[in-house]
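Database export, one record per block. Field names are fixed; values are copied verbatim from the stored entry.
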Amino acid sequence: MSLVREYLQLTKPRVVALLVFCAVIGMFLAVPGIPPWRALVFGTLGIWMASGSAAAFNHLIDERIDKLMARTARRPLATGKLKARQVLIFAIVLGIVSMLVLALLVNGLTAVLTFGGLIGYALVYTAYLKRATPQNIVIGGLAGAIPPVLGWTAVTGALHPFALQMCLIIFVWTPPHFWALAIFRREDYARAEIPMLPVTHGVAYTRWQILLYTILLVLVSLLPSVTGYSGLIYFGGAAVLGAGFLYYAIRLMNPPDEFFAMRVFKYSIVYLMALFAFSLADHWLGAPMLQHGLALQSVG
């Protein structure tokens, strides 16, 4: 059981759970009622396995720096509980199976987009961008923002502007979310020689960037209502959640203590989950929306 637990830890369960949650919401947003069981079950399974594979590759590539950082020092590969060969095989097998599930039991478009997300996170972000530029999380954020698009295409087999808007929201959400953590863990990143923004440009500059991205996030989060894909329930939820995020971002400019950055980080997770929950509530309880008819056309 302990070995199974170590392998499960490779998949970064909490991070992957958030990604899969956004993908599943994308599935439900794509149709008026319950998504087809095949797309829901196998789409969720395939996206989860692909995300787990990307996370395992992340462990493998980051083995050296994981040993230097307090946040990651207990990871299975960093502690020696698993060997690099074991992690590599696990990541490859999980990735191959995920592609087979998506390509054979869901649809080709979802498989291709999911594979792109896997490569974007495991290779483009982890292996290159993370070590190359303090804008790593901005440029590489697209890989982590794609889940609602994957959920939508798993059900409809087609892209849609509403799904792309939800992707954009996660893309803009990622920098303030991650930079808050980076502020708190800046000594870790400095020790590992990873050029995160607080390390290269200082904490004060990073706080300003978090505030600016949070303002942009609040504006972007209202797009689904402005463009007619969501109604008042979503608009009200997005406005309240955005006001909360703005409060945290402004308070972070002159925080009461060193741990406040972690409170911003934790709120950002609650923010994203609640925002997507409001989107689903609006979808089911609000007035009929344009994407219902478009989604039915795509399914048909």
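Remark 1: The chain has a mean pLDDT of 92.
Remark 2: The CA atoms of residues 8 and 107 lie 27 Å apart.
End of record.
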